[in-house]
Amino acid sequence: MEFNVTLLGQAITFAILVWFTMKFVWPPLTNMMDERAKRIADGLAAAERGKQDLEAAEKRVADELRKAKQQSTEIVMAAEKRASQIVDEAKDVARTEGARIVAEAKADIDQEVLRAKEALRAQVAELAVTGAEKILRKEIDSAKHADLLASIKAEF
Length: 156
Description:
Layout: H1 5-135, H2 142-155
Helix pairs in contact: 1-2
């Protein structure tokens, strides 16, 4: 095999190319690949943190929903209890008011009955006096008859 100058020139050129590539081209490429790998790793880590944050947020939301449901149930129960109390109080007030109205009505009826009896007594006494006056027109003494009528009124 013969080595000639062309082959030797090509070998030297190749060696210079390899040296130049390793000195000036390879380090920036390596740095870019390292930076890209670091960005990818950071992105994956951020995605993992986001996933964990999402899970934690979902747990907090579930807890808050459970608490809100429990509070709403308690509020509804308290409202129902208060509504029941209000209804009971209203029934008691209505019963008391009804009893008072009935008592007043009975008292009014009793008073009207007494007034009617008095009016009836007065009419009966007047009729008796009128009748007696017609029968006894000759012997009428007002004072005696007034005493007699008062005693008759008292009897009724």
